[in-house]
Amino acid sequence: MKKTFLIILTLALLLSFSSCREKSNGDDEGFGKDVDIEILEEDSLNVILLLPDTWTESSSSYQGTEIRHYTSPSDGKGDVFSESISITTEALKEETTLEAYTSANVEIFKRIFNDFKMISEAETITLGGVDGMRVVYSYTAGAIHIVIDQTFVINDGKAYMITCNATEDSYAEYSDIFSSAIESFKIS
């Protein structure tokens, strides 16, 4: 299980750091609160999630772990971080509880992230009829202060991790989008 967490962590970190971007030339459209939402049916992940249709998708997989990553459009000049939502799935090799899985992931993040701060302790939520656990924390990557809003779900021997990240300054602007995406999560 420790090896699996490290694989997930490595992939999540790579995608998190891929949210940092070069400065825009300012030609990108702005990103307001009124966004078009579309249902994205993830055939290989077997989930349904509501996301802004202006966000771009990338994906990767490694040893049975799949990640789908969605990135916000540039906010314009000086936008060096792309807010994002990713879905990570993995088949669990051993039976574990949702609480233990969540706790183990949070402990790993506490050890590796600079200036890790828990904003919201794990709380139980229901997503599409399945129990989940949601935590919010922050850390520092270089000069950027990042807030992570993360939800964990276990269903039929498979773990799902929804990770939403934004800078500390933009989190309030994106929190409704993050909450809508998390609340829309359904296993198909």
Structural description of this entry:
This protein has about 190 residues and is an alpha+beta fold. It has one domain: Protein Transport Mog1p, Chain A (3-Layer(aba) Sandwich), CATH 3.40.1000. About 25% of the residues lie in helices and about 45% in strands. The chain has three helices and ten strands; from the N terminus they run H-E-E-E-E-E-H-E-E-E-E-H-E. Strands 3-4-5-9-8-7-6 form a seven-stranded antiparallel beta sheet, with helices on both faces. Strands 1-2-10 form a three-stranded antiparallel beta sheet. It is globular and about 45 Å long. The two termini are about 25 Å apart. Mean pLDDT is about 80; it is low at about 1-40.
Condensed summary:
The protein is α+β, with helices and mostly antiparallel strands and 188 residues long. The chain contains 3 helices and 10 strands; from the N terminus they run αβββββαββββαβ. The strands form 2 sheets. The protein has a 7-stranded antiparallel β-sheet, sandwiched between helices. A 3-stranded antiparallel β-sheet has the order 1-2-10.
Short descriptors:
3-stranded antiparallel β-sheet; Protein Transport Mog1p, Chain A; 188 residues; single chain; 45% strand; 7-stranded antiparallel β-sheet
